[in-house]
Amino acid sequence: MDNLTSVLDVVLVTGTGDPAFDKTNPQYAALATAYARSRSPEDLEALMVCCKPGAKPWVFKVSPLSVFAAEWTTNGTSPTDVSRYSRAFLASCFAVTAPDGSEHAAPRTTRPGDDEQQAAPAWADTVARKLGRGMGAIREVGAVALQRAEVPADAAGFFWPLPGGLRLAL
């Protein structure tokens, strides 16, 4: 269960997903879909049976967005604007664990006009290009952070309600 204050482990399953997953595995589509909808630790654990032999996925450590950070990520952006996901990524993802177990930490900076820390803008480039995860990783992780920010504290638990009536189980 997620208490909305913990760091959430996120792996990539949208777009091309993580190369560690065997997308020909007959269980992959159903398990990846369930995980993409829920982002629950239980669904992540179930998805791991679809890893190629000896392979592990990249794990993004996603911290909860503060109310101010959630507002900053969406201010002046449309729901389809990629900048909102880039901002959410910078405001929530401060570390990534590589398949070999090595940790990559974001250099941090303070946003102008407030005292909240975020990852330095170069962190998105590092993840997308130097670590080879691409812009799709930035969008997917940022979207998870924004969805998580929508959850009221009294609704945290097994299900997260999402805008539009969808529910995210955790």
Highlighted features:
single chain; 170 residues; alpha+beta; 6 helices; 8 strands; disordered C terminus
What do these coordinates show?
The structure is a single chain. Helix content is 36%, strand content 16%. The protein has helices spanning 28-38, 41-47, 67-74, 82-92, 122-130, 134-149, and strands spanning 8-10, 59-62, 93-97, 103-105, 108-110, 117-119, 159-161, 167-169. The chain has a four-stranded antiparallel sheet with strand order 1-2-3-4. Strands 5-6 form a two-stranded antiparallel sheet. The protein has a two-stranded antiparallel sheet with strand order 7-8. It is globular and about 50 Å long.
What's this, in brief?
This protein has one domain (8-169). Helix content is 36%, strand content 16%.
